[in-house]
Design a protein that fits this description.
7 helices
């Protein structure tokens, strides 16, 4: 009897060890790679996204993995940069709700106006060694690598520059009345 689900390189990829680039074609590949990295992360996730596409980031399993990481240690950190938060306003989003509940461990910021106008790509960095890169953040194509410390370091420097210029979005924060 044959296995109904074909195995992919993501099935055996180990964060911090598997060095191969894995091409990602479509939202299913991106979601599988994101879930695999989030599930294996032990310290941190940094995410740059156009608008936190619900098909990728508002999935129960991903929200659960982010919750697990955020609660794992007092040193755990998840930072999310959103280029265009407008589509999120007035809607529920599991990752945003989690960030509102765990605001000391999960931070969400909006890119500066200058960065919002020029930004094209999107990426995720896990524990400073694994990364997913989408050269065109609004397309579901990219590359995942579970052990790319040099590339992750460059993306981390880029993330930090964007983060330093970012600002809180008042519409994404929880209001306590």
């Amino acid at each position: 009897m044959s296995d109904p689900s074909p195995h992919t390189p993501l099935d055996t990829a180990i964060l911090g060890k598997t060095r191969d680039d894995v091409p990602l074609e479509g939202s299913a590949d991106l979601l599988a790679a994101t879930l695999a990295m989030a599930a294996q992360a032990r310290r941190s996730l940094q995410l740059v996204s156009r608008h936190l596409d619900p098909n990728l980031y508002d999935q129960g399993e991903l929200v659960a993995e982010c919750s697990r990481l955020a609660r794992r240690s007092r040193y755990s950190e998840i930072r999310i940069l959103i280029q265009d938060p407008e589509p999120l306003r007035g809607r529920t989003h599991g990752l945003i709700e989690l960030a509102q509940r765990l605001s000391s461990r999960i931070q969400v910021m909006r890119m500066s106006e200058a960065d919002r106008k020029t930004r094209v790509d999107a990426f995720l960095i896990a524990d400073g060694v694994g990364c997913i890169h989408q050269p065109r953040g609004d397309h579901h194509q990219g590359t995942a690598n579970f052990h790319a410390p040099r590339r992750s370091k460059l993306l981390m420097a880029e993330f930090q520059t964007l983060w330093d210029a970012a600002e809180p979005d008042p519409h994404l924060r929880r209001l306590y009345l």
